[in-house]
Specification:
The protein is mainly alpha-helical. It has one domain. It is 55% helix and 0% strand. The protein is built from six helices and no strands. Helix 2 crosses helix 4 and helix 4 packs antiparallel against helix 5. It starts with 16 loop residues before the first helix and ends with a helix. 16% of the residues are buried.
């Protein structure tokens, strides 16, 4: 389907003496994760065009109706639709995601760490695609 690697598994590290003294009194940070459904949304976004996140104009809707062209479907879940939009922008533009889309991503309940995890995974997928094409 897509060339997206499995989620990056972070091995729990044993705390070193220096890191233990730094984190005294603070709660351990949970590792950033995306669910399997969320990873599938990110993988599907690889094949979606930027046009699928734009609101179609009146003229475009008329042309699609006249010629019987399929309208790209939005996801029913607003949180997952936000993830899809950010993933499409990340696939096409890398780290250059508009601030408004990133703010919507954060407002949907995602964290900066989850965004970074997704970007790292997309970077690995891009590198694998380049190696595959170079052969």
């Amino acid at each position: 389907m897509a060339s997206l690697p499995l989620p990056l598994l972070q091995q729990p590290r044993s705390p070193s003496p220096s890191s233990a003294s730094e984190s005294v009194g603070s709660a351990p940070a949970a590792a950033a994760r995306l669910s399997a459904l969320e990873w599938s949304i990110v993988a599907m976004a690889e094949h979606d065009s930027l046009a699928s996140i734009r609101e179609p104009s009146r003229y475009t809707r008329i042309l699609r109706a006249f010629f019987g062209l399929k309208t790209p479907n939005r996801l029913a879940n607003d949180r997952l639709e936000t993830l899809r939009r950010v993933a499409i922008l990340a696939w096409h533009h890398g780290w250059n995601v508009p601030k408004s889309e990133f703010a919507a991503f954060r407002a949907a309940g995602f964290s900066d760490d989850q965004f970074e995890l997704m970007q790292k995974s997309l970077g690995q997928a891009r590198a694998a695609n380049r190696r595959r094409r170079a052969r």
